[in-house]
């Protein structure tokens, strides 16, 4: 396995393998890898010949006052994880390599970005869409792999690659969880042990929403919201729920009345445990 810092070198590597008839896959990450990332690497390597893992903490998707400077980084640790998982290359550019002195271009997706996370993190998805476009242009993968935990990000990127005719496929993989249901995340390192235990309530209220819809046949989403909030207040009153929403899984339009809805339902939430912001979701069909 090799670590490459220059984007032009990665382009040449990818082009060489594609000309040799081999398929190239990308797992884009911000590093400080965990079991969720490893599961993406395993799937990508099983389905493709060459695996590139990008490790880049992208400054343009962090807003003012967010945790860019504190975001955990450990490239030596990540190197060994990638090597063990079967990666062929790590693309680990500097910020100056990804964004030159005079970088005036950004990719902006409308509509699907202007809700949920978009209400709390303005400009975040411009940063995501721009850096992913650059990574796709650099690595030219047949497929790239992301986890379900970032459901809105996945919806944004699916819309982007469709609208811009980018020749790749996004493969969304199952969220990997702790034993108590907490979704694996690099930011979990900021949580205390008590917060980690209490955060199990997040996956619980997502599943309760699903149960109310599928088993209890509840169609009034306002009732489900209130029910979920009551459970959170009881189990973890110090947590701050920023949103708990029931939407479709393509355009992320909020569903008020489920009685006439048919298709994939996304229940997503964002919650602050102390200074750490956690997101999670559940997707199912009705």
CATH class of the largest domain: Alpha Beta
User: Taking strands numbered 1, 2, ... along the chain, how are they ordered across the largest sheet?
Assistant: 1-4-3-2-5-6
CATH architecture assignment of the largest domain? 3-Layer(aba) Sandwich
Strand content: 15-25%
CATH superfamily of the largest domain: HUPs
Largest sheet: 6 strands, parallel
What value does the Rg take, in angstroms? 19 Å
- How many strands? 9
Characterise the protein shown here.
Helix 6 (124-139) crosses helix 7 (151-163). The mean pLDDT is 97. Helix 3 (75-85) links the parallel strand 3 (50-55) and strand 4. The strands form 2 sheets. Strands 1-4-3-2-5-6 form a 6-stranded parallel beta sheet, sandwiched between helices. The chain is an alpha/beta fold and 286 residues long. The protein is globular, with a radius of gyration of 19 Å. It has 10 helices and 9 strands.
List keywords for this structure.
286 residues; alpha/beta; Rossmann fold; Pantoate--beta-alanine Ligase, Chain: A,domain 2; 2 domains; 6-stranded parallel beta sheet; 10 helices; 38% helix
In short:
This protein has ten helices and nine strands.
Note the topology:
Elements: E1 2-4, H1 7-19, E2 24-29, H2 35-47, E3 50-55, H3 75-85, E4 89-91, H4 95-98, H5 117-120, H6 124-139, E5 143-147, H7 151-163, E6 169-173, H8 193-198, H9 200-214, H10 221-235, E7 240-248, E8 264-273, E9 276-285
Helix pairs in contact: 6-7, 9-10
């Amino acid at each position: 396995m090799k670590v490459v810092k220059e984007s032009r070198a990665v382009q040449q590597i990818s082009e060489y393998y594609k000309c040799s008839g081999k398929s190239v896959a990308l797992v884009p990450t911000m590093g400080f890898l965990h079991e969720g990332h490893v599961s993406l690497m395993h799937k990508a390597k099983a389905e493709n010949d060459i695996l590139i893992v990008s490790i880049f903490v992208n400054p343009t998707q962090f807003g003012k006052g967010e945790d860019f400077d504190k975001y955990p980084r450990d490239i030596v640790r990540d190197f060994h994880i990638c090597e063990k998982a079967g990666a062929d290359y790590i693309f680990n550019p500097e910020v100056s390599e990804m964004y030159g002195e005079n970088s005036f271009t950004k990719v902006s997706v409308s509509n699907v970005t202007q809700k949920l996370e978009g209400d709390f993190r303005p400009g975040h998805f411009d940063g995501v869409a721009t850096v992913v476009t650059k990574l796709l242009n650099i690595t030219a993968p047949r497929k790239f792999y992301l986890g379900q935990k970032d459901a809105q990000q996945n919806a944004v990127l699916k819309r982007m690659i469709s609208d811009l005719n980018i020749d790749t496929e996004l493969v969304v993989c199952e969220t990997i969880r702790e034993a108590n249901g907490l979704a694996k995340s690099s930011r979990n390192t900021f949580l205390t042990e008590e917060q980690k235990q209490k955060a199990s309530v997040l996956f619980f209220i997502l599943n309760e929403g699903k149960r109310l819809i599928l088993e209890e046949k509840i169609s009034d989403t306002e009732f489900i919201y209130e029910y979920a909030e009551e459970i959170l207040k009881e189990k973890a009153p110090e947590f701050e729920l920023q949103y708990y929403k029931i939407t479709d899984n393509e355009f992320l339009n909020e569903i008020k009345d489920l009685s006439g809805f048919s298709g994939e339902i996304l229940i997503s939430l964002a919650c602050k445990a102390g200074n750490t912001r956690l997101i999670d979701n559940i997707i199912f069909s009705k």
